[in-house]
């Protein structure tokens, strides 16, 4: 499979004044203008969005059609925090089927106008209600996963803190990131406990934002750009929503299955990847994913962090954008934003956060506690 990503759009992440319709319009216009195209070049649009409970606005396809002032085939895709990855996959299938040639994938969420207790409740609608009714929240479910990882593999709070330090450092070089502040391991360890062992600086924040990618066939790519990036593998899998029915909670089986499919599709191995954006909604998630993606053996993620192998100048830089931790996590936008970063890296356009000579890049986008996973692989 070779589909071409020919252009991208991305708003700043954080608390934004624009409404959800105008956020979608902004990234749509950015992606089109960078490709010297207008909306008539686009056959269909896929919108990744998690919950209308944040804004009260359902039916985003019609909101976007009104903003664009055109009639179009527009579809909304929802799969919790993995909505962006699933939207990318649906868009890829639509082109590969021959139905469309050129498709825009937009991710958007507007969370910051909602009080934090309601945000927590809305996010929890993506977890098992059996677990939520006993008082669980996403931070507490990930805290359980962290405790288990600590118990099985000897991982510590310091290892997780180093992930937060790295991602906040990377975000200093990303002008679109929500946070531009450097922290030390001590700052992370001394930040307020959210759900032990996870502290404020182990958590991704509440964010507004949007991102877009314009995707087309390999043959049509030259109409839009001289430097396309190719989607060469994509794997998607869904497992149980609750933690209690998993054999172990120190791993994400859906990530393993999705990554096996993605690597098989392009005939590459984890060692071939030069840069990756992985879903660090909590620091423990980045650690579990780098293991489950096969960048190291299970339980050895802590060694990769200690040795600096995941820093921007390491052998497998993880989250050069700052990741969800520091770039921000507007749920529906996240999976698309990861693709924007990898496309930017593979085109050599990432400025001072550029990973040297990156040829192959990977995105890992998960939903819930890893129940849904989409792994996508790109080449320059
Ligand atoms: N990382 C770093 N700084 C953060 C932060 C985070 N995750 N969240 C908030 N802050 C900062 C704020 O900018 C603010 O800084 P300031 O005082 O310098 O302005 C300060 O911490 C207090 O912010 P506040 O908005 O009062 O925090 P909060 O208690 O309302 O929210 C969390 C903190 C951790 C509860 C919230 O960010 C959260 O719920 N995160 C997880 C989101 C989530 O579950 N996503 C889905 C994943 S599956």
Main sheet: which strands, in order across?
3-2-4-7-1-8-11-10-9
* Gap between N and C termini: 14 Å
Secondary-structure element order, N to C: EHEHEHEHHHHHEEEEHEHHHHEE
Average pLDDT level: 98
Can you tell me the overall shape?
A: globular
Enumerate how many helices there are, as a single number. Answer: 13
According to DSSP, the number of beta strands is 11
| Biggest pleated-sheet summary | 9 strands, mixed
Helical percent range?
25-40%
Radius of gyration: 19 Å
Proportion of strand residues: 15-25%
Low-confidence segments, given as residue ranges, are none
What hetero molecules are bound to the protein chains? coenzyme A
Q: Look at the helices and sheets and give the structural class.
A: alpha/beta
């Amino acid at each position: 499979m070779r589909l071409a990503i020919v252009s991208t759009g991305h708003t700043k992440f954080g608390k934004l004044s624009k409404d959800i319709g105008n956020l979608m319009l902004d990234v749509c216009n950015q992606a089109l203008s960078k490709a010297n195209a207008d909306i008539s070049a686009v056959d269909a649009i896929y919108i990744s969005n998690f919950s209308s409970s944040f804004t009260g606005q359902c039916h985003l396809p019609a909101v976007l059609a009104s903003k664009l002032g055109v009639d179009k085939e527009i579809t909304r895709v929802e799969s919790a925090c993995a909505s962006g990855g699933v939207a990318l996959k649906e868009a890829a299938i639509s082109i590969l089927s021959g139905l469309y040639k050129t498709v825009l994938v937009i991710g958007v969420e507007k969370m910051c106008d909602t009080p934090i207790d309601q945000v927590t409740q809305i996010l929890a609608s993506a977890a098992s209600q059996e677990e939520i009714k006993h008082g669980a929240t996403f931070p507490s479910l990930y805290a359980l996963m962290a405790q288990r990882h600590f118990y099985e593999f000897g991982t510590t709070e310091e290892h997780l803190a180093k992930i937060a330090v790295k991602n906040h450092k990377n975000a200093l070089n990303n002008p679109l990131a929500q946070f531009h502040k450097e922290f030390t391991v001590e700052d992370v360890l001394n930040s307020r406990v959210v759900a032990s062992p996870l502290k404020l600086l182990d958590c991704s924040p509440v964010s507004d934002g949007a991102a877009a990618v314009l995707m087309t066939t390999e043959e049509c790519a030259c109409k839009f750009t001289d430097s396309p990036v190719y989607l060469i593998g994509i794997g998607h899998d869904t497992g149980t929503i609750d933690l209690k029915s998993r054999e172990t909670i120190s791993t994400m089986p859906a990530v393993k299955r999705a990554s096996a499919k993605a690597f098989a599709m392009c005939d590459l191995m984890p060692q071939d990847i030069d840069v990756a954006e992985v879903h660090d909604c909590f620091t423990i998630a980045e650690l579990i994913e780098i293991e489950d993606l096969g960048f190291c053996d299970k339980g050895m993620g802590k060694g990769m962090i200690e040795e600096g192998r995941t820093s921007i100048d390491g052998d497998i830089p993880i989250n050069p954008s700052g990741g969800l931790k520091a770039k921000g996590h507007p749920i529906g936008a996240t999976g698309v934003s990861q693709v924007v970063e990898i496309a930017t890296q593979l085109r050599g356009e990432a400025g001072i956060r550029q990973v040297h000579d990156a040829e192959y890049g990977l995105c890992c986008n998960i939903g819930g506690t890893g129940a849904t996973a989409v792994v996508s692989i790109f080449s320059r």
